[in-house]
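Database export, one record per block. Field names are fixed; values are copied verbatim from the stored entry.
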Amino acid sequence: MEAETMNGNYSPSETDATELKDKKKKKNKKKKTAQVKHSESYIPHQPPEQQNGSKLSKKLYEKELTRLQVELVKMQYWVKHQGTRIVIIFEGRDAAGKGGTIKRITEPLNPRGCRVVALGTPSDREKTEWYFQRYVAHLPAAGEIVCFDRSWYNRAGVEHVMGFCTEGQYQEFLQTCPEFERMLVRSGIILLKYWFSVSDEEQERRFQSRTTDPARRWKLSPMDLESRDRWVEYSQAKDVMLSYTNIPEAPWFTVEADDKKRARLNCINHLLSKIPYVDMTPEPLELPPRKSAPHDYARPPRNEQFFVPHVY
């Protein structure tokens, strides 16, 4: 029942006052939620379907990928504005899905500020250089993101297992790599390292599928075929590598990659959580009316130009 004051003006009852207080709290809570910015501890929302063991549906995968790629664009705006330097290393077994993940990370980003580095066999001159020298040349400047599709860890993996380096070079790498990475981190570079783990059975299935797919057959290199027979050697090399280079300043993060779709989403999700970015996306632009072309301009005749034929 409504209460009245001595002068006859309306005064809210105790119940009304409580309701107003609750509404005010909810309003303030919504306001604070809207103002929350991404921080280092931020982890994008994961739908329940992604957390269970069932196969990820194509619809859910595409929906989540679209959302995460929008976040990647926001992150790149922040990186450019802040002058941040980011290095992301992707390592793992052959056919583990590194390339597909890198593609999904880079496809929405501005290529001027995001590069993929996938170096081939070192030249005769590069073989005489300091081992890290050719990688240093590809490190990012301010506002850049560099994704290494395999990196200096070749020495601890394929070079060691296949005998492309001496035992002395291998041991030197294990000792100096942690110091090299600490130098990068001290210089202000954000260094993230991902190891894509795939089971023996799944790797073999992917190898077999490549033999029948003309668009992916080029992925079966002699090194890939040789790795099929050296599963244990590569496993042992990976274990030793992690024991030496899993340092607090730049730890390794393992991505379970038997399910490619889950691996991509999980990796991008984790990557975003490790970058303390805030949304700096510019406001929508309002373009002014377009100026009309000068009256004395005339396009050249079509028969003087070459056009791509309409095949489709």
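Remark 1: The first helix runs from residue 14 to 34.
Remark 2: The radius of gyration is 27 Å.
End of record.
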